[in-house]
Amino acid sequence: MASQAQTYAEAGFGQRVPRGTRPALLVVDFSYGFTDTAYPTAADYGPQMARTAKLAEATRALGRPVIYTTIAFDPAETGSLAWLRKSGGMAALTRGSRLVEIDPSSGYRPSDGLIEKKGASAFFGTNLAGLLASTQTDTLIVTGATTSGCVRASAVDAVQAGFNVLVAGDCCGDRAAAPHDASLYDIDQKYGDVTDSDDLARYLGGLAE
């Protein structure tokens, strides 16, 4: 019986994607509602945010975009959106509340891009694709939370929008290990390359030479 790796390889999955010269960094939902464990929707992503902050610095040094996302609902939406019928705890992420503010530990600066979204993907219902196209982005580095939710959805939509996708696995976090690991495996086989922050720092540093 073929191994899992052999099965995927024989089906043509797991190819490596090219790395362009015009990257952007997408930091998905490192807001207090996900990072401050005083809230039930959050988990401890301290190490992931620290590594993300370093990638943000390296990306800015190239003059390339660093874009953060946050989920924020209007009060009128919390009783009607289908997503919140399934994930009711997310209804606390209301516009103007502390939960939707970006955690500064992730390296956020006011000069960075900030996209407010209503769904899992950073692309759905937002101007992200247009923003990336206007800056001639060819490669999108993705970090953030949660790996199995908004990170995965954003990676899928990014490749469907025509961008080469690189996911920093050690800069992503989830509420449990199993969905985190499974999602990274799935992304790496079908949508983008899953690597780590050290590799991506070398990639960004090489573009500065």
TrEMBL record:
Organism: Limimaricola pyoseonensis
Protein keywords: Hydrolase
Source organism, top-level taxon: Bacteria
Name by which UniProt lists this protein: Nicotinamidase-related amidase
Stretches assigned to the Isochorismatase-like domain: 24-199
Keyword DNA repair part of the UniProt annotation: no
Gene Ontology molecular function terms on file: hydrolase activity
PANTHER family hit by this protein: ISOCHORISMATASE HYDROLASE (PTHR43540:SF1), PEROXYUREIDOACRYLATE/UREIDOACRYLATE AMIDOHYDROLASE-RELATED (PTHR43540)
Zinc-finger listed as a keyword: no
